[in-house]
């Protein structure tokens, strides 16, 4: 069998086109993967491939969502309690200020009245 000797220029061309081909292949694989992910076609494939892991993650996600919902409800209840406590404190301060004014008026009235003995 006669072996064909390639010139240096032909070897360089062959290597260049090989690298270009491999680059195009990888680029097309990446773009295809992005398209499949964008179309949400990979979740069905992964569910079939890894059913135990996916179902475990879904159960964990549902549990965490329930905990978040409970925490939000508790926060809302506490915010309501804090608001009522704040309103009560403001009402108490108002009543105490009124009481001080009334006591001051009573003292001035008592001081201005002559003693009846």
Summarize the structure in words.
By secondary structure, the protein is an all-alpha fold. It is built from three helices and no strands. Helix 2 crosses helix 3 (51-112).
Key phrases:
117 residues; mainly alpha; 3 helices; rod-shaped
Structural class: mainly alpha
Helical content stands at: over 70%
Shape: rod-shaped
Tally of strands? 0
Q: Write down the secondary-structure element order.
A: HHH
> What is the number of helical segments per DSSP (H or I, 4+ residues)?
3
Mean model confidence by pLDDT: 87
Structural Rg = 41 Å
Give the biggest beta sheet.
Answer: none
What is the terminal separation in angstroms?
A: 147 Å
Strand composition percent: under 5%
Low-pLDDT residue intervals, each spanning 5 or more residues: none
Structure summarized in a few sentences:
With 117 residues, the protein is an all-alpha fold.
